[in-house]
Structures are given as C-alpha cells and as structure tokens.
Amino acid sequence: MRTIWFFEDANLLKLLCPHKFKRYKEDHNFHAYRKNDYIYFEEDSANKVYLIERGKVKIGCYADDGYEIIKAILIRGEVFGEKAILGENKRTEFAQSLDNTTSICPIGVGTMHGLMQDNQSFSLKIYKFIGMRFKRLERRLQLLLFKDTKTRLLEFLNELKEDYGYCCPDTGDMVIEHPYTQKDIANLIGTSRPTLNIILNELKESNIIEFNRKKIRLKNVA
C-alpha cells in the first residue's frame, strides 16, 4: 500500500519538486512554517499543490458545530492540496503545520499541468495517487461513522502495518516504526487521547500488541 503515498516507493518530493527542472528552479522557493501555522484555510483559492520537504502537516475541516475533523496527518515526501489539479477553485479543507521546522515546496497548478502534459506516465501516476488517496479517505470516514473506537484503532494499525511495518523473523511479530504521536493517532481515529490509551493498554494486556512512543509491535502476526 505504499503506492498510495509514495509512487512505487519514490519519494514525491524527489519526483515532483521544481528544483529538479531547470526552467522552474530559479523562480522557486521553499516556504517555512512554525507549529500551528496554517498553510491554507477553507475557502482559500486552490492554485497550488504542496510537497512536504520537512516536518508534519495536518489536513482537516470543521463541522457545522465547530468540531475539528482530521482527515490526514502527512510527513516528509508527501503531497497535499492535490484536488487543485482536478479543477477545485476553493479549498474545502485546511492545512496546518504540526512542527516548528516545517518546510513546504509549493507547485503552481499550471506548472503541475505542464509536467503532466510532458509525461504521460507521470500523469497516470498522479491520477492513480489521487484515486487511491480518495479511496483511503472514504474507508476512514466509513469507519468513523459505523465502527466503534477499538475497531477504528485496529483498522488504523492495519494501515500503519502496510505503510511502516516489517516482519520480525525470529518471533513472527509485525513491528511498526511510525511517525505519529498518540495525539495524532487519536485525532485520526476520532477519539480522545485518554480513550486511546485505555484501548492500547487493553490490547497490551491481551498480548495483542506492545508499544512505545515510536514503535508498535503486533504480536504473533504470522
């Protein structure tokens, strides 16, 4: 499933950044953000696509009652704002920096369309990426609507396993080295951090998982 976020294991920053192309390099700059800075808001003009060169970015929106809905938390090498490629005029979500050293590579929609027109294979990869991201978001929203918190966590761990996991041959355990904090995970599965801690400890007591800040071990996966 890495192809959802990394085109066939290729870091998007290395694949798309205008610094790779001489005709764009001179006029291109990276943008720096501090923690809690917004890259864009809902209703802002959608005229750029963004690549994360460093740091972490939260994508979300607000419900009518003001409740914050987190759609994704993205890290280095990932892309966001991609709906602008499909003709979105105004943003339907916000993007916010979660680190004090976030660095973003913005790409104008015109530039992106030019790159896609010049390379059919690249264009197909872009559309595949967008389709797979929509599919994953749809699955996550279905979980939020119809599944209990424990099921949502187990499904999220399954996603992490596909993206960041490796099998430990000696034990058959699946080890997941991931970039998310517990607060990030709680936001992504639509629960509170205390509730998440309770469920994690229940799973640990049942010998299903072991965990620390940056690593989760799924026991006896084989």
UniProtKB/TrEMBL annotation:
SUPFAM superfamilies: cAMP-binding domain-like, Winged helix' DNA-binding domain. Residues 147-222 form the HTH crp-type domain. Keywords: DNA-binding, Transcription, Transcription regulation. The lineage of its organism: Bacteria, Pseudomonadati, Bacteroidota, Flavobacteriia, Flavobacteriales. GO terms for molecular function: DNA binding; DNA-binding transcription factor activity. Pfam families: cNMP_binding (PF00027), HTH_Crp_2 (PF13545). The keyword Transcription regulation applies. This is Crp/Fnr family transcriptional regulator. InterPro entries: cNMP-bd_dom, cNMP-bd_dom_sf, Env_Response_Regulators, HTH_CRP, RmlC-like_jellyroll, WH-like_DNA-bd_sf, WH_DNA-bd_sf.
